[in-house]
Amino acid sequence: MIRPLCAILFCVPLVCASLQSLNDTCIYTLDDSNSASSNNTRTLWDILLSCGWTLFACTWTAVHPNIPGMNEGKVAITSRRLFIMIMALIAPELMITWATRQFFSASAAAKNFNDSYFDTHTQSTKAYMHRWTVTHGFFAWMGGFMLYVNDEPRGTLTTDELQRFIDEGSVDMPVISEAEVEDRSKGDGLSKGIAILQLVWFVVQLFARYVRNLPITLLEIDTLAVVALTCVSYSMWWKKPKDVGCPCIVHWKGTANQPIRLTYDENLARLRGGHFRSLIYPFLGLMGIEVLTSSRAASSRRVPSLGGYGKYRAKIVLFIGCLSGIVFGGIHCLGWNYLFQTRTQYMLWRAASLGTACAPVLLFLDLGCGMLLGRSVSNYRYFIITFATISSLVYIAARVTLVVLILLSFRSLPFGIYDTVVWTQFIPHL
């Protein structure tokens, strides 16, 4: 099922090579009259709609949010989803980091559960049990199991807490099959297929323009960069349930002592130091630092928006996240010699492309050195937060600059930008 995504990624380097044609392209003032003189043309709206639908397919279909909190309305759920979509457009490497951490955590949760319970029980016990899959692991980490004490919601359980309470006999083992988990999911093969077809069609068009020596806009370069990274996130989330509305209830046994503190309760207590800390910690958690949440997520008894993972393979996740950031900035560097209207725009594009590619490197050096030296990250918390904040500001400034330059580029586009590919030319004939 992941083969279509791999096919898209395989075509990305070929499409990137086509962008070198921009180096020798002269820039002319737009002339709509000339564009309308031929049937094999496209309009500015065609370009915007093509990129817009592709970006929408990347974000709306590929993003798999966690389970919403208790008594949250549709406005809050939709707002949080829009926030994640915007993050996917602005910083798709952040989505790769999040998806990778969840994938590793889900795989580890499924393995630990099967090793601890399924493989060690008798055949009679296995009759009502279900072997956990990666889908089960995703469901658990995204807030799939809610602890109830005296018929009142207590909080979302992590996989470690669920396993510990089962071992202690405080809760019964939840019995849910993979089919039941998938039944809670709102995702389906049709929506995934339509999204993949849109991505494939976009990449094919760019590759065809390269074959016919037709220029490409900066917006299409940016869309290509987002598509390349979103495909990786999509593949990591392929088995994750999508848009699950409510968790599975796990009842606390009356004979056992009630839990004094859960994971997100502890995080809530530690985040009372300020509003800024509650905003920065979830992002730092994605890069391998301690997993924390905001007070809003804890009060609504849900997994944080960018949470739902454990401390598994933090070094690998950090490397993948930083590498994806370099790739994202590197694709924008393919417009290195694009002829802008002014030299200032020309230099700003180069600086912003390098800034987008180098900011993840700074963060990797910041966090990676501490890991390689075997020192506790918490000992350097102030330095890490300061350095990470600076890197984030550099990235935000660079990304905003790229977006502004992309918008300004439509004032003057390369000659032939409105010419479309004549597909009949690709048909072999005598």
Q: How would you sum up the major sheet?
A: 3 strands, mixed
Helix content: 55-70%
User: Residue ranges: pLDDT <50 for 5 or more in a row?
Assistant: 1-37, 271-276
Coarse shape:
elongated
User: Multimeric state of these chains?
Assistant: single chain
Structural class: mainly alpha
Number of helices: 17
The end-to-end distance, rounded to whole angstroms, is: 38 Å
What value does the Rg take, in angstroms? 24 Å
Keywords: Membrane, Signal, Transmembrane, Transmembrane helix
Signal peptide: 1-17
Transmembrane segments: 45-63, 83-104, 129-149, 217-237, 318-339, 351-374, 380-408
Structural description of this entry:
- The chain is mainly alpha-helical and 430 residues long.
- The chain has one domain (28-412).
- 59% of the residues lie in helices and 3% in strands.
- It is built from 17 helices and 3 strands.
- Strands 2-1-3 form a 3-stranded mixed β-sheet, with no helix packed on it.
- Helix 5 runs antiparallel to helix 15 and helix 11 packs antiparallel against helix 15 (314-332).
- The two termini are 38 Å apart.
- Residues 1-37 and 271-276 have low confidence and may be disordered.
